[in-house]
Amino acid sequence: MVKNRYRNSIIMFTDPISDYLTRIRNASRAGHRVVEIPASNLKKEITKILFDQGYILSYKFEDNAVQGSIKIALKYDKFTKEPVIRKIQRVSKPGLRKYASSTELPRVLNGLGIAIVSTSHGVMTSKQARLENAGGEVLCYVY
Predict the structure, then answer these.
(1) Among 10, 40, 71, 88, which is most buried by a count of CB atoms within 10 Å?
(2) Across-strand partners of 140?
C-alpha cells in the first residue's frame, strides 16, 4: 500500500513482483547504487537467486516494521559503468499465468540469461528446475 500524494487514498499493488522488478529496472537505469523494496518471502527468494547468479552486488533484509524491506546494492561494469542487469522482464502476470513443465522450461539467450521459476520445490532458476525435474510458474527473465 502506498499513500497517493494527491489524495488521501491508498493505492494497492495488484502485482508486487512486477513492482519489485520495476524498482530494480528503474534504479539501475538511473544509476543508483542501492534500491529499497518492500519485503515478502517470494521477493527474498528472488533476491537470493539474483545474488547467487551474480546480477546484484549484495542485499540486506531489514525487519524494521510490519512488512520489512529489502535493500539491494546494484552491480555495474567496472569499465563501462553499464548495469549488469541489461533486461529484467516479468513473464507470468496475474491476468495470464505462464506455467511450464520441466521439459518445456525456457532458456534465456541460449543460456546466457536466467529464468526464475516458482516450483513446488521452491523458487529457483530454470536450469536448477530442469536438474530437479520440476516444472512451475515462470516468474521472470533476467539478462
Answers:
(1) 88
(2) 90, 116
Q: Are 115 and 105 in contact (CB under 8 A)?
A: yes
Angle (CA) 11-14-15 rounded to 5° is: 125
Q: Quote the cell numbers at residue 41.
A: 518471502
Residues 6+ positions from 12 with CB-CB distance below 8 Å: 1
**Confidence class of residue 12 from pLDDT cuts 50, 70 and 90?**
low
Cα 71 from Cα 57, distance rounded (Å): 11
Cα three-residue angle 52-127-71, rounded to 5 degrees? 25
Beta carbons of 54 and 85 less than 8 angstroms apart? no
What pTM, to 2 d.p., does this model score?
A: 0.89
Work out the average pLDDT over 22-32: 97
What residues does 93 pair with on adjacent strands? 96
Tell me, which fold does domain 16-142 have in CATH? Dna Ligase; domain 1 (3.30.1490)
Show the cell assigned to 82. Answer: 553499464
Residue positions counted in the chain: 143
